[in-house]
């Protein structure tokens, strides 16, 4: 008897038949509808979501105020292009972003559709503001897959056969304390990394030609690596000393994920320019570049933006998302969610030496797997079976990291404690199972 295909498998087969292979498949789950922290697949199975659309649904799937705002705006107008016809939702959203993400005495904002677009425009603004061309970025970075963003992105597998890349881009090692500190204390490690930064002005790039340094305060795709506090402070001082723009990429870490609107607020280190997307619009394509007004205004008229620079539908979705996040105090909830995750995974770590590190800020938590307890020996074999096993037991989770040896948790922050703990139990069981099979 021929076994009948599930609706999910039929959908995946159709995908394989018509969608280009280069479009990644990070998890084999499907979706028919979703609400809160639960995804219901094509066969009616409920899945707990620990991926959040890669950090896009911090406010949950289909929050009602956001859906209502989208419906209302859709009945008014869908598109005029803000370049051609000015509309209030764009201006309102920029005002709201300037309020929650102030950059100095006066803040200005521009809207685009994606995080990669935000990065591209941030670089253009920094170059025009400084009249310089060189950009400094970091290993482990992920900034997108358009040309400049892809050049800034570190992971080679995202860039196969895509060169030549954008010129005048230079790279330093990210200050990953867990992986590279060895026997050094945190202070000793940061001292050495800041020394490396200052030496880069002599052996890597002419500092007088350096327009900007771009960094994720907490790396996303790179493995949820937080930069040390004093390193970011030193980076800010270095930029001030040499007239360099400090750009912070908050695309994955923004909008309540770390318990703040942006992770730089956790650090208390002010960027000149910062970029946002993902959870800003609860799933609609909206992104922003936010910066000090005089820097933002340095860009020549028409040199930044595009046709879809803040769709009115996406703008109202983002404004409704921000209001909803404020109303339910999602920043506070992120800290609660993060504490539950960290406590449980650190308890598991005591009995699993293969777990090298549990780290993060707020609810942006990563679990790194290593061999022989050595941070320099990433265990790339364990995450695949864990992701697969979790999917089979009703949990969606994603891997990350240069070596794909980090699991990242990006659950919607509206997840209930019951759902969160149920998901963590599935995850813990699959971690133990995967490790035992590899051993």
Automatic annotation (TrEMBL):
<protein>
    <submittedName>
        <fullName>Aspartate aminotransferase family protein</fullName>
    </submittedName>
</protein>
<dbReference type="Pfam" id="PF00202">
    <property type="entry name" value="Aminotran_3"/>
</dbReference>
<keyword id="KW-0032">Aminotransferase</keyword>
<keyword id="KW-0808">Transferase</keyword>
<keyword id="KW-0663">Pyridoxal phosphate</keyword>
<dbReference type="InterPro" id="IPR050103">
    <property type="entry name" value="Class-III_PLP-dep_AT"/>
</dbReference>
<comment type="similarity">
    <text>Belongs to the class-III pyridoxal-phosphate-dependent aminotransferase family.</text>
</comment>
<dbReference type="InterPro" id="IPR015422">
    <property type="entry name" value="PyrdxlP-dep_Trfase_small"/>
</dbReference>
<dbReference type="InterPro" id="IPR005814">
    <property type="entry name" value="Aminotrans_3"/>
</dbReference>
<dbReference type="GO" id="GO:0008483">
    <property type="term" value="F:transaminase activity"/>
</dbReference>
<dbReference type="InterPro" id="IPR049704">
    <property type="entry name" value="Aminotrans_3_PPA_site"/>
</dbReference>
<dbReference type="InterPro" id="IPR015424">
    <property type="entry name" value="PyrdxlP-dep_Trfase"/>
</dbReference>
<dbReference type="InterPro" id="IPR015421">
    <property type="entry name" value="PyrdxlP-dep_Trfase_major"/>
</dbReference>
């Amino acid at each position: 008897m021929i076994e009948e295909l599930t609706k999910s498998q039929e959908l995946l087969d159709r995908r394989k038949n018509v969608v280009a292979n280069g479009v990644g498949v990070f998890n084999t789950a499907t979706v028919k509808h979703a609400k809160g922290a639960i995804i219901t697949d094509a066969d009616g199975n409920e899945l707990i979501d620990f991926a959040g659309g890669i950090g896009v649904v911090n406010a949950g799937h289909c929050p009602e105020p956001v859906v209502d705002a989208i419906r209302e705006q859709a009945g008014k107008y869908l598109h005029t292009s803000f370049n051609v016809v000015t509309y209030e939702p764009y201006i309102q959203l920029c005002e709201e972003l300037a309020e929650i993400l102030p950059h100095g005495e006066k803040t200005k904002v521009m809207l685009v559709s994606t995080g990669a677009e935000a990065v591209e425009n941030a670089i253009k603004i920094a170059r025009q503001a400084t009249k310089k061309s060189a950009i400094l970025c970091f290993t482990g970075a992920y900034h997108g897959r358009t040309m400049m963003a892809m050049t800034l992105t570190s992971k080679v597998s995202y860039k196969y056969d895509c060169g030549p890349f954008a010129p005048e881009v230079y790279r330093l090692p990210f200050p990953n304390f867990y992986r590279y500190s060895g026997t050094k204390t945190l202070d000793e490690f940061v001292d050495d990394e800041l020394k490396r930064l200052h030496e880069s002005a002599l052996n890597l790039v002419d500092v007088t030609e350096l327009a900007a340094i771009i960094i994720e305060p907490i790396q996303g795709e790179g493995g949820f690596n937080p930069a040390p506090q004093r390193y970011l402070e030193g980076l800010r001082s270095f930029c001030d000393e040499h007239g360099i723009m400090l750009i912070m990429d908050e695309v994955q870490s923004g909008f309540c994920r770390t318990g703040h609107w942006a992770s730089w607020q956790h650090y208390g280190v002010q960027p000149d320019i910062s970029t946002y997307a993902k959870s800003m619009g609860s799933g609609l394509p909206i992104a922003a570049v936010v910066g000090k007004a005089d820097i933002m205004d340095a860009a020549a008229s028409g040199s930044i933006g595009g046709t879809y620079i803040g769709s009115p539908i996406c703008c109202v979705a983002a404004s409704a998302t921000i209001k909803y996040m404020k109303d339910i105090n999602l920043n506070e909830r992120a800290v609660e969610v993060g504490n539950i995750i960290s406590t449980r995974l650190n308890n598991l770590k005591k009995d699993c030496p293969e777990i090298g590190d549990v780290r993060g800020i707020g609810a942006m938590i990563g679990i790194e797997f290593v061999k022989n307890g050595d941070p320099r020996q990433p265990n790339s074999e364990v995450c695949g079976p864990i992701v697969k096993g979790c999917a089979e037991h009703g949990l969606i989770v994603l891997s990350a990291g240069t070596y794909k040896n980090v699991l990242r948790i990006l659950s919607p922050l509206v997840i209930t404690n019951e759902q969160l703990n149920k998901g963590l139990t599935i995850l813990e069981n699959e971690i133990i199972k995967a490790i035992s099979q590899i051993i």
